[in-house]
Amino acid sequence: MDVRVADPTAEEAEAIARALAARFGERVRVFDADGGDDPLAEGDPPEGGVSGRPSDDDAGPTDREAALWDEIEDILQGGPEKYRERQAEAGKLFVRDRLDLWFEGLTFEDGTFANFDAWHPNAPDADTDDRLPADGLITGAATFEGRAVHVMANDYTVKAGSMARRGVEKLLRMQNRALQNGKPALYLMDSSGGRIDQQTGFFANREGIGRVYYNHSMLSGRVPQICVLYGPCIAGAAYTPIFADFTIMVEGSAMAIASPRMVEMVTGEEISLDDLGGPAVHAAESGSADLVARDEEHARELTARLLSYLPDNADADPPRTEGVTPAKSPDGIDSVVPEAPRKGYDVRDLIERVVDADSVLELKSEYGAEIVTAFARLDGRPVGIVANQPATRAGAIFPDSAEKAAEFVWTCDAYGIPLLYLCDTPGFMAGSGVEKEGILEKGKKMIYAAASATVPKQCVVVRKAYGAGIYAMSGPAYDPDSTLALPGGEVAIMGPEAAINAVYARKLAAIDDPEERAREEERLREEYRRDIDVHRMASEVVIDEIVPPSTLRDELVSRFEFYESMEKELPEKKHGTIL
Fold first, then answer.
1. In which residue ranges is the amino acid composition biased (Acidic residues) (predicted)?
2. pTM above 0.90, yes or no
């Protein structure tokens, strides 16, 4: 820096040079204002840096920053040490270790200092009897398997992962941001519910815990919501996994509307938490769990597989991968499907010969097992499969399986995932038992979902398609892009045995000779079977095409590719009344 000063003395010029060099941290030369090319004095910045501060080379964290780091490190330790030890004894990771397993650290965290004033010794209003770091709930962003996601995780070492005012506020903000930026939300749940002794300010408020479930509803079908349960999720906490699109329960976890102690108080029933709402209950009986994980690592693996089929949001396309050949040759499809309509077989053997190898992820496999619902890939394209399972209850549709299929179809449609229906069913089950369980009510949901889905759909009549089963399985009347059939397929109001009995019972009963009656019954049955054979249906163009079984995969790949840009619109209305 060069400066000019009018008529300075030598001492004044030196003082000015030193002062300016110290102030601005650079070399200063002082010249006479009246001219002259030689400086009167020169000054260099002091060794300590500008105005006595360290130079850039010597700069480092101040004591103030060091104190902040100490506070952050303390918060990251979670609740009292004894509760961390209990987590380890229960075979569960401390929440911060869990986040490291999933993400190798968060991209960033929001609300680390939530409720800081209530507990930390450095805060002016602290009551240090209870540690409440982050208010027991962590929210932030992370990269998961290459995908940017929102993350929420309960800290069970802080009052058993219970929810209170500041934690709820953080969760609400995370949900609102997910709604705005269209990125998936992961909920890593381990919570005993609302913090009852602190419910003022978060329970019934407009921006309280009730708003969490409102936000779940707004996010539903907008961005994928995946919930993983690690421990007890009781009362209000149990609604998050229920509202999520997909729920994974780790062995040892549980969810219930009330704790066993509350159940006993209200009903007198003595029951363990596992029997009340453990994975076996919700995977096989309630249908609330989509998948069950063996341990924490398996839960992460399942979530990664699940997310691999899903787009970031409803406006994005599901992720494609490189296609691979099926695990078993499509040439064997015809041998997998028995010729006899009533003979059972495992439809998974058929699926395995159609889709890409190792691409099947079945959901709710133990619930409503007479229908298989699964994600898979066809030449790298994600598809949702709804397949009747003749190996279980002959593939008849029961209330549980109808509801399972309806929810799966509804979810696939929300996220733009094409649907493949594999139809081999005698139709909806009949009887007083299923009537009491709501076969009509739940059956209509399955039919409604098939009718309302606007994603590309392919229906394959694998063998039998009787009764309203062909409607529920998105048959010709339900706007599939194609209705295909394998050569042994039959489409009818009912099967030959039942039909002959219904129509010709009196005629057959009038034949006295048993052998003659049997011959006539067989003749009528074969005549009926010719009428319902898919060749007749194809002749009448009810069926678009009868496909040689060995070419089924190629046929489906081509048709999904061709129809991927199909535009289907529902009638203009607010929404239907069925679901």
1. 34-45
2. no
Query: Is the CATH code 3.90.226.10 the one for domain 330-489+533-563?
Result: yes
CATH superfamily entry for domain 76-308 = 2-enoyl-CoA Hydratase; Chain A, domain 1 (3.90.226.10)
DSSP state of 427: -
Q: Say how far apart CA 92 and CA 440 lie, in whole Å.
A: 43
- Distance, in Å, from the CA atom of 22 to the CA atom of 70, rounded to the nearest integer, reads 34
Is residue 397 classed as helix, strand or coil in its secondary structure?
A: strand
Domain limits, CATH 3.90.226.10, in the chain: 76-308, 330-489+533-563
User: pLDDT value at position 52?
Assistant: 45
| Residues 563-579 pLDDT 10s | 999 889 899 999 889 87
Phi and psi based region of residue 229 (left: phi greater than 0; alpha: psi -120 to 50; beta: remaining): beta
Helix axes 95-103, 296-307, angle to 10 degrees: 40
pLDDT in tens, 262-280: 999 999 999 999 999 999 9
Tell me the C-alpha distance between 70 and 460, whole Å: 63
**CA angle 390–392–393, rounded 5-degree value:** 90
Give helix 209-219 / helix 165-181 axis angle, nearest 10°.
20
Q: Write down the H helix ranges in 25-164.
A: 63-76, 81-89, 95-103, 116-119
Per residue in 276-313, pLDDT (tens digit) is 999 999 999 999 999 999 999 999 999 999 999 999 99
